[in-house]
């Protein structure tokens, strides 16, 4: 994981005390042990670029800070081709990254098309402060060691568990939008944005479809081609679903050595189908069976305060503790890959939730995404949510609006925050997050992508031998209604319904009375910090039953409450006992 902080003075030089404070607070803002943090710095006239990493050596390219043609460049994330560092910032560069560029009197920070490697910025009377961690930017911009929260901005955290805006939990700190560039020259800041690519109409002939998919296929191949030269095979987490199947086919087509692993029992569709895929592609397949234990009527789980402290530390108050964040492990350079964000190739998860694609239904989806549970919130909070929704509701193309909402917020805020946990462990290649791949996907008609015809054709393009392998879950969308399957038709193989297993129960979604009581006492005992955005009576009603009826919202409230009452930054809670949560009685 890499962390950057850029400081640009409005007059004269960057004050020494600000630099000193930044060096001190990095141990708070960087969620790894202090003894694994390494630092690099560059200082020029009126501009400083500070960088930190927990990478154990200097072998990863491009370097943490490098100099090219009079420019100092930092790269947060990775490039498909490290040599492209000299082309930054650039719309056509492949990879998953944000760029930091400095020289005397000048500073540039830019996001890629999905801003999954974020840039945050703030301003003081004397400085422009720009960084890859929101809390670090806030602490560097504060004249004293104090945190000020933007309580109204946190209304979206309580509704959805992440940010549906460019706001952050910290006053004065804003997330740079997707496909945007922040420039500071001689103390003056400007921000330029480029709209996301507009989708072309769906092609009407087979030849036109093949041509339209060609750019997307090339972009996907470019993400993995450099992996051919690695010293060990890529490990792909493979399921029976759509997104990881594309990756298996992609690695096969690119002639990248890889092996696959699948979690589950031999009877689970994921394992059955993944085994077929591995056999067709002639790659090693390892099945990791779940641990078998004696039947128990309860489980012991970590105390919510410990869980939330780690989530706040890792995600900076921008992801709810309801989510399971990848825990810290020492950094590893081993190549890994998963299907994260594959919905980009299928018009985004918000469109995929829809069965009704009528105008009213799509408008309702946009509205409820921003203004969910209105009764729970104050008039000010609801008006704020409606204001955030307004430009999206005004878009005439509803499928495009939901498609872009997914990129802006589900990827650009939720994943950007939550993936910080896994980035501490390494920097895995994520083809579906690649700048070129996302641009190429967004250029294809939303309805066509939503039909799943695009990803099906990609699979056949990369690995036609997978044509007869069934899919796990629901049938392919484009095949619904087709009844005959001739050898010359496009109708794919059948599907295997998702298996229902005991793994469907979760203590987070069925918290039981003991865990509910802990959540309740924190939230109701500190209602005063939440009342600027929530109605106290509605919150009390939420916790009225012995077991809370909406566990996700209870966790969101708990996360925001602990943030506002000062759980983090602060010392990790100690001496907290585990909580007993009863498992469901199958006889009931």
TrEMBL record:
Annotated ranges, domain Asparagine synthetase: 217-453
According to its UniProt entry, the protein's GO biological process terms are:
asparagine biosynthetic process
Matching entries from SUPFAM superfamilies are given as:
Adenine nucleotide alpha hydrolases-like, N-terminal nucleophile aminohydrolases (Ntn hydrolases)
Among InterPro entries, the record links this protein to: Asn_synthase (IPR001962), Ntn_hydrolases_N (IPR029055), Rossmann-like_a/b/a_fold (IPR014729)
- One of the record's GO molecular function terms: asparagine synthase (glutamine-hydrolyzing) activity
**Pfam families membership:** Asn_synthase
Instruction: Name the domain of life this protein comes from.
Output: Bacteria
Positions the record marks as coiled coil are none
Q: What is this protein called?
A: Asparagine synthetase domain-containing protein
């Amino acid at each position: 994981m890499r962390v950057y902080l850029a400081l640009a003075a409005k007059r004269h030089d960057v004050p020494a005390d600000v630099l000193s404070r930044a060096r001190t607070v990095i141990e708070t803002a960087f969620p790894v042990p202090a003894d694994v943090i390494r630092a690099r710095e560059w200082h020029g006239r009126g501009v400083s670029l500070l960088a930190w990493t927990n990478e154990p050596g200097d072998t990863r390219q491009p370097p943490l800070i490098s100099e090219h043609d009079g420019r100092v460049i930092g790269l947060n994330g990775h490039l498909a081709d490290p040599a492209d560092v000299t082309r930054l910032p650039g719309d056509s560069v492949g990879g998953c990254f944000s760029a930091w560029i400095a020289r005397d009197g000048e500073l540039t920070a830019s996001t890629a098309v999905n801003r999954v490697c974020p840039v945050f910025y703030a301003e003081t009377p004397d400085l422009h402060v720009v960084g890859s961690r929101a809390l670090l930017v806030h602490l560097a911009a504060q004249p004293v060691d104090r945190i000020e929260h933007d309580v109204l901005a946190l209304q979206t955290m309580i509704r959805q568990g992440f940010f549906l805006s460019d706001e952050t939990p910290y006053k004065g700190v804003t997330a740079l939008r997707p496909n945007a560039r922040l420039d500071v020259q001689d103390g003056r800041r400007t921000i330029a944005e480029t709209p996301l690519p507009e989708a072309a109409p769906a092609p009407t002939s087979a030849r036109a479809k093949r041509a339209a998919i060609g750019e997307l296929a090339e972009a996907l191949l470019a993400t993995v081609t450099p992996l051919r030269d690695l010293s060990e095979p890529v490990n792909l987490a493979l399921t029976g679903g759509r997104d990881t199947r594309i990756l298996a086919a992609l690695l096969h087509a690119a002639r990248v050595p890889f092996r696959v692993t699948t979690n589950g029992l031999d009877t689970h569709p994921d394992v059955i189908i993944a085994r077929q895929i591995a056999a067709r592609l002639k790659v090693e397949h390892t099945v990791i069976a779940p641990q078998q234990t004696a039947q128990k009527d309860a489980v012991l789980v970590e105390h919510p305060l410990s869980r939330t402290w780690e989530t706040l530390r890792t995600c900076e108050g921008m992801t709810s503790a309801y989510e399971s964040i990848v825990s810290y492990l020492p950094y590893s350079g081993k190549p890994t890959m998963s299907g994260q964000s594959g919905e980009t190739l299928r018009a985004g998860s918000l469109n995929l939730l829809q069965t009704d694609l009528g105008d009213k239904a799509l408008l309702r989806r946009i509205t409820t995404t921003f203004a969910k549970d209105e009764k729970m919130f104050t008039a000010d909070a609801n008006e704020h949510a409606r204001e955030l929704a307004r430009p999206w509701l005004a878009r005439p193309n509803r499928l495009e609006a939901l498609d872009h909402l997914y990129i802006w917020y589900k990827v650009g805020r939720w994943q950007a925050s939550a993936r910080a946990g896994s980035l501490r462990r390494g920097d895995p290649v994520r083809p579906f997050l690649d700048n070129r791949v996302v641009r190429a996907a967004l250029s294809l008609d939303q309805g066509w992508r939503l039909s799943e015809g695009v990803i099906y054709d990609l699979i056949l393009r990369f690995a036609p031998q997978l044509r007869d392998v069934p899919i796990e879950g629901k049938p392919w969308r484009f095949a619904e209604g087709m009844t005959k399957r001739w050898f010359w038709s496009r109708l794919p193989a059948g599907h295997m319904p998702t298996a229902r297993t005991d793994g469907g129960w979760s203590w987070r979604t069925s918290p039981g009375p003991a865990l509910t009581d802990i959540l309740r006492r924190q939230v109701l005992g500190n209602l005063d910090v939440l009342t600027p955005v929530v109605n106290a009576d509605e919150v009390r009603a939420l916790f009225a039953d012995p077991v809370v009826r909406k566990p996700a919202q209870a966790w969101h409230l708990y996360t925001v409450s602990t943030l506002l009452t000062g759980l983090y930054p602060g010392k990790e809670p100690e001496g907290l006992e585990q909580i007993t949560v009863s498992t469901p009685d199958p006889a009931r």
